[in-house]
Amino acid sequence: MKTVYLIANGDLRTSANQKCEAAQAAMEKQIVAALKKEGWKVKRAHPFSKLKGHGFIDSQKYGMEVFQKIPADAPLIVAEAVWQYSHHILHGLLTHTGPILTLANWSGTWPGLVGMLNLNGSLKKAGVDYSTLWSEDFKDAFFQDGLKKWLKKGTLTHDTAHVRALKNVRVPAEARREGERFAQGLLKHKAIMGVFDEGCMGMYNAILPDELLHKTGVFKERLSQSALYAAMLEVTDAEALAVYEWYVAKGLQFEFGKNEATSLTKKQVLQQCKMYIAAMRIADDFGCSTIGIQYQQGLKDLAPASDLVEGTLNNVDRPPVYRKGTQEELYAHEALPHFNEVDECAGLDGMVTYRLWRQLGFEPENTLHDLRWGRPYVFENGREEYVWVFLISGAAPPAHFIGNWQGAVSERQPSMYFRLGGGTLKGISKPGWIVWSRVFVAEGKLHFDTGLGEVVELPEKETQERWSLTTSQWPIMHTVLKGITRDQMMARHASNHIQVVYAPDQNAARFGLLAKACAMRALGMEVNICGDIK
Question: Hey, what domains does the chain have and what are their CATH numbers?
């Protein structure tokens, strides 16, 4: 029998790897059976560790040890049922000469999908050739046919007929003028992106090379999360309490408990209020038009999670913040676009979107989400759609929610990820038309994909079930992507994250999409329109 090597890249956090070990083992059993059926045997390149309680590659150091034992020309499968840190294995994949297949389970509960999408985006940025597959049970025809092709040819391609270059799309003159006028203004006046420590969670694809970013008129101000924590210590208790009372007056519901280790407490929220004020003051000090907090690593050992902070920053209607020792309001009547998990691609996209939507007279609040999972849904009128679950930890602004602030709830981030707690900003996104997009790096250039989506309202039972199958503490958006199948989206999308913004109606969404596409092209990006925008 021919041999294929298999590795399982994992999280940096032992608790996350341990929780997902059973799902990973079950998936690998199915993969081994599928390969055996095709006459291939599997050699797992690293063992289960009794000491750690899991069998994942959990560091760059360990990843380098593993790759020393893998023949450079061997067929290699990267099997993912968990969030993974791409840099744990990127070094080995860069020099691997054999065929590479990234493979994930189609599950909302076990985040292999988002992990694989991040790895795919990282490989694309690094210029590594790879093939990719996904499956619910590894018995469906899509998976089996794809696996056969990869085993036979060492490569696999998917249908991407939904992608068209902007130059092949008819653009109204007014939309082109609006986009190009915006780009000229940004290139002339420039802008600063505040980055609180780069490289969150191994997301190599989320780091924009400076030489590419500078061509857009945007420049990084590299900031430290330790400086953010130090600034939090200078915020008074009275200032934090004023922010908290603003939330309460607006109708935000806090799901409080008494146990600091497992429940959300007012003490945690007041720390988040201090972080919010500190972030605004630092952004003002450095003249930032957008900021991103790394949030997962480092800061989590000092303070509660930044989710509530991020969603608040992304909202125009938010608690006022004043320059220290004065009554001078900072960023008055404006949001301060925040890119979750310091994803700089999303940061650039979010800032451009915010400013362009202001120029067009549209509500400018926007956010990234995880392209988490999805499944078909049949509506009462018999219409069947593939409805995606867009889900992010807390960066979604309340302006996106049904009921705005009154429709928002703050729940404790899971203890597995955040020992010190902290509240999310949870809600159900309102029905309407959105423009989705993604900035990514490939072939040494900045690229921009965009398309139309419709946010739909699902029955409460369906929403609750989707939350229970993913992460119930996080805000959710039920989305139908126009003119794009599930597998087309997976084949093309170069990130675990997707940027979204609402438009007043379908025609406005199309106009805004084309104006933004023209703006991105004028900023030097390779622009593609995805799906149906009619």
Answer: 2-153 (3.40.50.10940), 168-530 (3.40.275.10)
